[in-house]
Amino acid sequence: MACLADTHPADWSYLSEGGATIVFSYKGPPSPIFEGNVLRLRKCTLNDESTPPLGPEIDPAVDFQKKCIERLIPAAYLPRLEPVAVGPNADAWLAALAAQCEPRRPYERRQKDRIDVRRPRAVLATDLVGSQGIAVEIKPKWGFLPSPTHLSDLTRPVKTRTCRFCMHSHLKAQQGDSVSLDYCPLDLYSGDESRVMKALNALWDAWKESDGAVNNLKVFVRGNKIDPAEQHSILDMVSGATDPKEGLTSALLPVLINTPVLRTISRLQRTLDALDIEGLAALWGCAPGGADPTLAEWGDFISTYLAAPAPSPPADPAHLRYHVLAYILSATFKDCSVIVRVPDGTASVIDLDVKDVGRLPRWERLDREIVAAYTAIPEKNRKCCLDGSKS
């Protein structure tokens, strides 16, 4: 197995990060092992004093993708993931890399978390942004309106009219966060050219107005993440373009219309979340969720799901475990990202880590908070989100 200690921390350049991982691109001397790959490292909170992972742990994302996700999304639309050992003095090597990248990390991230230097293994993934063209990372989010069946009389008229993302954006804006109030995921997922273009324009505008703070859109040119101030570098990559926004959105549109990726994500989200968090909470009562599933249990669940993905088992306590796993897996697809490459014309799905069952009560509380904030808006001022992709 490859060993990161065979490289110098300076061979790795900070690329991007999400809630659970931080990603580096390889800039070192020629290497058949590391070239063409990015390095994914797990993060932990700043005050995490828990017991370090023991033994030669393989990041669960590797096995989860190979044994579970690839049964739901074809491998052609996924990055290749491989485990990699950090090597001798792993904590010192990781600490050096962490110190090197810290000034480049977003301020708000630095206040919350850091590289987990206690982990002896990491993940190498296909480098989907390190080309001579443009790569755009889109975090599409929730792509459907819930079924009214398991909603309360209070929430039904709200949740079946305005999508979860748009309601959550309203709450975040009230709290002072940078959000994309004009972007609706249902437009992006619709498959309709005018609506998809509307979504792309809204994502671009939010990216530009927030100076890149909104995380639903990231733009990479020649393997480097750019800020809105550097947008004119896009013109070098898009033939005939005179305006960066028009050039990029026009290049992205046909890829997003033709790829099956968005349709697949939306279908998985919808069919796995048959009850909404409200219906699921009504089932779990005082014992939400249970233990995190093993890889074997995930495999059995996916076999059951694929045998008859619709309709799902009835909303009955006897089927609680099925619905818990289904909702957890739906959350993975609600939080994934799509990398679109121009001019390659390819789309790939990334960030498909499994979520923890322990998050369910927190998600249920957040759902109530989001709906309560949105219900306070006069009905005539609420957004009407069109769910036009129910296949």
UniProtKB/TrEMBL annotation:
Presence of the UniProt keyword ATP-binding in the record: yes
Enzyme Commission code(s) on record: 2.7.1.158
Cellular component terms per the entry's GO annotation: nucleus
GO MF term set: ATP binding; inositol-1,3,4,5,6-pentakisphosphate 2-kinase activity
Reactions catalysed: 1D-myo-inositol 1,3,4,5,6-pentakisphosphate + ATP = 1D-myo-inositol hexakisphosphate + ADP + H(+)
Keyword tags: ATP-binding, Kinase, Nucleotide-binding, Transferase
GO biological process: inositol phosphate biosynthetic process
Pfam families: Ins_P5_2-kin
Main function: Phosphorylates Ins(1,3,4,5,6)P5 at position 2 to form Ins(1,2,3,4,5,6)P6 (InsP6 or phytate).
Annotated domain remarks: The EXKPK motif is conserved in inositol-pentakisphosphate 2-kinases of both family 1 and 2.
Protein name (Swiss-Prot/TrEMBL): Inositol-pentakisphosphate 2-kinase
